[in-house]
Each structure stands twice: as C-alpha cells, then as structure tokens.
Amino acid sequence: MSEIKALDVNIMGREYRIACPVGQEEALRQAVKLVEKKMQDTASHSRNAMPERVAVLTAVNLASDYLEACAGKVEDSGSDTKKTLSACDTEEFRRRIAVMDTRLDAILARG
Fold this sequence. Notes:
2 strands; globular
C-alpha cells in the first residue's frame, strides 16, 4: 500500500487537510487549483453564493465536463471505442468520488 501524506490546501478561503499519496502532491495541487477556479466562477454567476451550494453546483459542472469529454473521446475514437471507454471508466470515476466523499466527510466532521 502506498504511503499517504496530509496536504493543507485552501479553497474559497477555507483551509482543508487532504490525504494524498506520496508523489501525487502536485497533481492534488492542480486539482485544488481547478476546483478553486471553478468554484469562483460558479459563485460569481450565482445569486446565492452559500459555500455548500457553490460546492454542489461546481461538482455537478465538473462531472458534466468530465462526461462531455468522455463522450467526445468515444465519438473520435473510431474502432478504438473499448479502449477509450476504459479511459473514461465510470466505475473508476465513481470509486474516486466515493474516496473523495469519505475524505471530505472526515474533514468536515473535524470542522
């Protein structure tokens, strides 16, 4: 099993400590940067900028972007459809969301 490191990040002015596999810190920082930007965009276009609402709307937007990108890959892949679908494996996507959800629950519980 890989070693886990705690990484402190800031999203929308709030500090979070997120578990991260050693060696994946930069990838996590890039993900946080994307989430921060998307949340700021969502908040700037929303009449109700409550943090929970912004987070949920951002999650839906990111999931939509992901699914749209997967659909585009499948259309462009021709005979390589099965290989492309594995790159957009929704089961893996769901597993990763479940892991993130568990981590967020733990973080919010410490609140």
